[in-house]
Amino acid sequence: MTPVLVRQDLAHAGPVSRADLGARARDWSEIQERMLVPLYEAVHERLDVGPGTRLLSLGCGSGLALVMAASAGAAFTGVESSSPARLALARERLLGDGPGARARGDVRLTDRLPTPSADRPGGRPSPYTVITAFEPIGRVAGDTEELTELLTAATPLARRGAPVVLAGWGPPERCATTAVLRVAAKLADQDRGTVRLRPAVRDDLEDVARRAGLRPDGSGRVACPFGYADLDSALRGLLSTGLFDAAVAATDQAQVDKEVTEALHPYRRSDGTVWMPNVFRYLIARTP
Fold this sequence. Notes:
This protein is α/β, with parallel strands linked by helices.
């Protein structure tokens, strides 16, 4: 059985609502997001993302995958509805004055799915050629249902037969981070009903694709080790994912910090760095 956390509404999540969400988004941007770079690279290479690609990124976070797509010459729309702070960082990265910024009409960052009229007012919209949903599913109860709804809404914006990429955690035995997530599940369970268990399902991604009306058409696995400079960086990075919010709501921030730090000790190396091997899986499906 794999622990599956329940995502909570921050407005009603007790101590979590008092967290500095801006600082947590910055921790995601500066520490955690880069852990998924091997996944982004593998998918972009397999789909030949570059000039001529019109990409729709669902859950684009603070925009690192989009920076990589932009450097390859792709046009894109990034959608980030769950974190205004992450979206602000993506805009800073891609539309500001920093490295990778582009003030061009082929870049859009928004908190909701585009509509055909907003995409190209007065004309026939250009369909997207690739859709990505890189936020890994498989650790939060309800995340498959949320992704199914999002993909169902996004699919009509893509051309026929366009690739749609879904990502998920690999087998628990190949993900060192699973041990730390079990701590979050244990703490969240102190508030009964906050956590539930379900068997790990190998075909989660395929099931989501089919429910969204997509046709599975290939998959892959990518090693994405989580490497941190020290225990503090590891704690900040992991907490920035949101996977520990239910535990904080059920207990308190100090207890979560303490127990997660203790769970990280087996992965601390002699030089003080923290190294956690993980494998992530991606599925390529096709629009009807």
